[in-house]
Prior knowledge:
Blueprint: H1 2-9, H2 13-26, H3 30-45, H4 52-72, H5 79-101, H6 104-121, H7 128-146, H8 153-164, H9 173-185, H10 189-202, H11 207-223, E1 246-250, H12 254-270, E2 277-283, H13 285-303, H14 311-329, H15 333-338, H16 354-367, H17 390-393, E3 403-410, E4 415-419, E5 423-426, E6 442-443, H18 455-462, E7 472-475, E8 481-486, H19 488-491, H20 495-500, E9 505-510, H21 529-556, E10 561-566, H22 570-575, H23 588-594, H24 604-621, H25 630-639
Helix pairs in contact: 1-2, 2-3, 3-4, 3-5, 4-5, 5-6, 6-7, 7-8, 7-9, 8-9, 9-10, 9-11, 12-13, 12-14, 12-24, 13-14, 16-18
Amino acid sequence: MDKIKEYKAKNRFYKARTYILEKLKITHKIEEVIYLKQQLALCYYKDNEVNYKISFKKALVILDDSEQLILQNKTIVNYEKIISENLSLMGAVYKRYFEKDKRIKDLKKSIEYYEEVYQKYKEIDNGYAGINTANLYELLWYELNKIGINTDFSNRANEIRKDLLDTIQLNHYWDYFSMANVYLGLKDTQKCNDILKEAILKYDISEWEKFTIFKDLKKIAQINNIDDLSFLTPLFDNVNIDFQKTGLALSGGGFRASLFHIGVLSALAEADKLKDIDVISTVSGGSIVGVLYYLKLKQLLETKEDKDITQDDYLQLISELIDEFFEAVQQDIRNKIFKTLNPKFWLPFGSYTRTKRVAEFYDEYFYKKYNIKYLRELKIIPKNFTDFYPRFENFKRMNKVPILVINATNLNNGHNFQFQATKIGENDLIGEYDRNFLVEWLRFDECEKIKDFKLSEAVCASTAVPGIFPPLVLELSDEIKLNLADGGVYDNQGINALLMEECNDIITSDGGYEMDDMKKIGWFYNFPKTIGIVKYIKRSIDILMDVNRDLLYEKLEYISNTKNIVLNSKNSVDKVNCNSSVNSLSNVYEKISKIRTDLNKFTKDEAGLLMAFGYSLTKENLELKKENSFWFKAYFNKLGLDK
Length: 643
């Protein structure tokens, strides 16, 4: 079973699952079957690249099945060890459920499973379940205390820890980590430090394993109000490593939004903050420019070592991005689409649609020079790496490898549908009252049907505005044909994808349309009737989108650090310092609000205004230094846009 351990050690859980399923077909010895099932469950619930609502449920079904096998075969060798491992795995799944959904009932369920193992089999599992029981009791005390409910669960946690001091045998480095956990829970930071030193000297421990225990111990320290983290130095010299995960959302809104986003990216580059981005979530117009930025970033990260990349590299990248994007916008894509003479394009039931045509234009004018045809080719593998998984390995890098999420809307079930470099599927953050079916994550290296899905088609799905472009049809099987429309139908800001990725530092660049007030409804809503119906429907859609937008921003109030850079807001305009990098912006609101959200040609003045406004708003909202603005001013001079 060394192959399973190898895959797990590298966080390649999907490969481990494939291997386990093949082994289960040819394995008949009951002990091996149970072991494989337990490992299969573990490789589901630990895999961050699978919808947790699906992976956790599958893990529990598999563990229920293995428990039945165990109970039916009580004479098997190591029965007590096997049943204790099964119960602990059940506890681990419910623990993950609590981490995701914050439901106290899941936390209590996890404690129930772990405590059963602790009470019955603590010598067999060498205190593993006891550690989890103690930590979870303390976490339960902490959560209830926050809402004013006093309990003695913290005392119960410490009773278990004291008992474990005489139980845990130090036979493996994880046993050392367990003992360090016990000492820290008892607030003995010196002994915690000593045991960590001993483990590091004695064993060759991988970076991700050290990082895992580091996070766990730091969380315990936080609950116990331990501010001095120097006891963690055996794991990492810098004990102030934070677990900040920075997400950048680029909203929909046609080329208007795209150009606004370039201004935002320019300010972030100038502040040397682009290197810190962990996740980029894009919608519609944000997807067009977001993918182009990502292709350029891929070039940079794959050709220069992390230690050699500087701020100047990002500034150069943005300079090139401005040139390339503005040149592509001059192609007037929207009008070219409707001038297409190919007869297949106009067939009412043909597969060659306006959406497919716009995908061809995206590829030709924006992405072709990068020789990336298929979505799976978008994956970034940094220089000197043979493979790279950002969710597990980004913490080691000075220049992060961001995960790119291209958002569309699945018309079949009303869910957010996502395209990523390694997989496609649906957002985990589906409400518990949603009864529609869920499309599982499909990986390019596991599903032949999607292997050759094109990058440009992912972007065109994200930009397929209903009523203008037909949905992109994605055939997953004979029974399932997905119809994918503009990501803005579900979430025009791209915020949900960042919440799914558990970002706790969020920058939202919102260049979308903001609904205008109408103090008096015009006559055209009633006459002529055909025009009135269209206006009526459009106004209703605007209201729905405006409500959804407000709800999304309300969600962000619960995130520790968020900055919303909103183009079409008078409140945003009021914040702009009119003596900042670009000349006076005091009257920009009226100009900006009239710029169309479209895919046609934009003039230099329009492009300059949008980029300058995005740049200046970012400087103000993120409270960035103004003296660095020489770069952006110089670039505008070069374009002849310094007006």
